[in-house]
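Hello again, I could really use a second opinion on something today. I've been staring at a protein lately and its backbone has me curious. Can you walk me through what the tokens say about the fold? Take your time with it, there's no hurry, and the full record follows here:
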Amino acid sequence: MSGDRLSFGSSGYFGMLALLLFGRGVDFLSTWVATPNLVLEGNPLAKKLGWRLGAFVNLILCFALAFWTTTTLVVVTASLLVAAHNFHLAWLMRLMGEDNFRHWFADRVAEARLPIYVFCLIGETVVTALVGVGVVVWAPIDSPPFAIGSGIIAYALIVLFYTSLSFWRLRRQVE
């Protein structure tokens, strides 16, 4: 799933690069609004890289991925959906402060019954992924709709993976 390779310096390449820079930039902005010190960052690699090295790695990835339209659209779609997900509670994280929000959320996680939490997380991600599957099934491979549907599926998997990872880390901390 990569589509035709674009030539470096072509208008298509720069168009894909602009989309990637925008998508990854909005993801970075939403993360910064939610957790400027990366205390609440769910991705351990992003947390370890920090802002400067993370921005550099993402910039390199943007320049590398812009050669392929389909791949670019998958990454941009997933990035924009992750950003929307981040913005959802960013205001509360900023209002409470990163540490206070983390402690408050850890307390809620400790109180949660595991079966209902897992059911709701799976429900959220499966229903989201089904939208992507619906698009992918009817779209020709390497078409923009196929890439966008794949990006929706990727987003659902990202949410499932990183939310599960954060949940288990928080559960271990409070036990």
